[in-house]
Design goal:
The complex is a heterodimer.
Chain A: E1 6-13, H1 26-41, E2 50-55, H2 62-69, E3 76-81, H3 89-99, E4 105-113, H4 146-161, H5 165-179, H6 193-198, E5 201-204, E6 206-207, E7 216-225, H7 226-229, E8 237-246, H8 265-276, E9 285-287, H9 293-302, H10 311-316, H11 333-336, H12 343-354, E10 367-373, E11 377-384, H13 386-389
Parallel strand pairs in A: 2-3, 2-4, 9-10
Antiparallel strand pairs in A: 1-7, 1-8, 4-7, 5-6, 8-11, 10-11
Chain B: H1 3-9, H2 21-30, E1 34-38, E2 43-44, E3 61-65, E4 69-78, E5 92-98, E6 106-110, E7 124-132, E8 135-142
Antiparallel strand pairs in B: 1-2, 1-3, 4-5, 4-7, 5-6, 7-8
The chains are: A alpha/beta, B mainly beta.
Chain lengths: ~400, ~140
């Protein structure tokens, strides 16, 4: 293992809600999650000198947030215009700023009102269908929602490998079962495969229960040097390595992507394992970006937990459940815990590696994978508990 | 109407811009699908771009006719849409139709004149012109 240079030392998150009556402004959510993360790290606001966020025009800019949180001296700040692509990549951005000497303690937040505020995709709202000029080639045909864009490679996988709706359903049932153990999940009532198969169709092959939960909420993380982290309140969770990248012509809706049987994640996975010297068998718990069920199946293949085309049977075997070969999203994932553009995956990874995950704790979890999936582009990170490095 | 306005009141209609004007004009005037083409690289690209994504030049870009044949590369069947002007049309098929002129060259279209449940990957399709409020848009239907 390479010696990690930075660690995650504080986490904070708001309640995750789907309730118009109690919705709060995104800035308020950002401040709450951020202050909690700083407290959790055992730091003061004045200790934070770096601030990063990612958003799609739906959040509070870092310059505004710096004031609202009460940061007095920000040496580095950056707003990334992106969605789930950057879930894990944000951690590497913090590491770059720290390792370059621009900041010592970086706060990262993602705050969004994905339920009560600006929703992803749709006809005229979010930018999921690409630049405005490209929408003339998609919107007249009704293509605009994420399910319609991301359903396309899912259909190819079903055709090429015989992957079934029941296998998609195994992901949904598992995510919900995990969420039933998680008090902060927005959907906790277990579902059966029959429930899944009976849920209304949105964009076939995707039904309602293939889709994540549009959520209001915010998550925040404090990153500092590995050395300093060892003197703070919690045992450090080390950033062992991260990758962020895109293949040729990666934009939505994948109009320039040559082969929709392949995502960019086999490349990212190879690079991540090479960078860290780790292998799939080393990973104890996987926080896999699951905006839609099939994405889990595909990434399990791409990250080498099973072979190409074997993801369907693999999830059906029980391998991704608690106690399985590779427990996936013990918090219930974006599917059932919340959709905070994947940053809630980072929170869960930290809790698992601290051993703080309660009923849903993966036994002796030491290494966690976190991904941010956008098919043709994305990011992934490997995190390690204190015993891995010590 | 802009595209954003049109989706609120009717089936969305494309709003051409400087780069894409030739796509829509050529289709309407000839009834044949034309795809942006770089004569320097002998290469099609879609969606249209301000410059060829291969050589980086714009001066060799034109719109060149294609056969109007294709096959369904992949598709979804939309049962629920947030686009007001299309709510009356569900369920409808949205497909990536691959054109035989070049590997990976694809257009988005609805597949018409077939039950959505009968659409399969690989099925041959052919161009079908739809007149939508005076604007001709390319659609596809089963071929033979």
């Amino acid at each position: 293992l390479p010696t990690p240079s930075v660690a995650l030392t504080g986490i904070g998150f708001t309640r995750y809600t789907r309730d118009l009556a109690t919705a709060r402004p995104v800035g308020e959510l950002a401040v709450e999650a951020s202050r909690k993360a700083i407290d959790d790290a055992g730091l003061q606001r004045g200790d934070i000198d770096g601030l990063l966020s990612y958003a799609m025009g739906d959040s509070m800019p870092t310059r505004d947030a710096a004031g609202a949180i009460g940061l007095s001296n920000v040496g580095w700040f950056s707003d990334i215009n992106s969605g789930g692509t950057f879930t894990a990549g944000m951690l590497e951005h913090a590491a770059l700023a720290i390792n370059a000497g621009h900041a010592r303690r970086v706060l990262i937040f993602r705050s969004m009102n994905g339920f009560s505020g600006r929703r992803m995709g749709g006809g005229g709202g979010g930018g999921e269908a690409g630049p405005a000029s490209n929408r003339q080639f998609t919107l007249p045909y009704g293509m605009g929602a994420a399910a319609e864009i991301f359903g396309m490679p899912a259909r190819r996988h079903m055709w090429k490998y015989g992957t079934t709706k029941e296998q998609f359903g195994a992901v949904a049932v598992t995510m919900r079962k995990h969420a039933s153990l998680n008090e902060r999940a927005v959907r906790r009532t277990p579902i059966t495969l029959e429930d899944y198969l009976a849920s209304r169709i949105i964009a076939d092959p995707y039904s309602l229960l293939d889709c994540c939960q549009e959520t209001d909420g915010a998550c925040a993380v404090v990153v500092c040097s590995a050395e300093e982290a060892r003197s703070l309140r919690h045992e450090p969770v080390y950033l062992l390595g991260a990758v962020l990248g895109a293949g040729p012509h990666p934009r939505l809706p994948f109009d320039g992507w040559l082969d929709m049987n392949e995502s960019h994640f086999s490349t990212l996975a190879r690079d991540l394992y090479a960078r860290t010297g780790l292998a799939p068998a080393d990973v104890d718990v996987a926080l896999i970006y699951d905006a839609f069920t099939w994405e889990v199946i595909k990434q399990l293949e791409d990250f080498g937990f099973c072979g190409p085309g074997e993801g369907g049977p693999f999830v059906e075997s029980g391998a991704i459940g608690l106690g399985g070969a590779i427990p996936v999203n013990p918090h219930g994932g974006l599917h059932s815990e919340a959709y905070v553009h994947g940053f809630n995956h980072v929170i869960e990874a930290v809790q698992q590696l601290r051993g703080d995950a309660g009923e849903r704790q993966v036994k002796n979890a030491q290494i966690a994978l976190v991904t941010g999936f956008a098919f043709t582009a994305g990011s992934a990170a490997l995190l390690g508990g204190h015993d891995v490095v010590a | 109407l802009s595209l954003e306005q049109s989706i609120q009141v009717q089936r969305p209609t494309p709003a051409a811009d400087r780069v894409t004007q030739g796509f829509w004009d050529s289709l309407k005037s000839t009834g044949q699908l034309h795809i942006q083409y770089c004569t320097g690289c002998d290469r099609y690209q879609h969606f249209p771009e301000a410059a060829c994504t291969s050589c980086g030049h714009s001066e060799h870009l034109t719109y060149k006719a294609v056969s109007g044949r294709g096959e369904v590369y992949t598709y979804v069947v939309t049962h629920q849409t947030r686009i007001p002007g299309l709510m009356q049309d569900v369920p409808y098929v949205i497909a990536w139709v691959e054109l035989p002129e070049q590997a990976g060259l694809r257009v988005v279209a609805n597949i018409r004149n077939i039950q959505p449940s009968d659409v399969v990957i690989g099925m041959p399709v052919k161009l079908l012109l739809e007149d939508r409020d005076g604007i001709v848009i390319p659609q596809f239907e089963p071929a033979g």
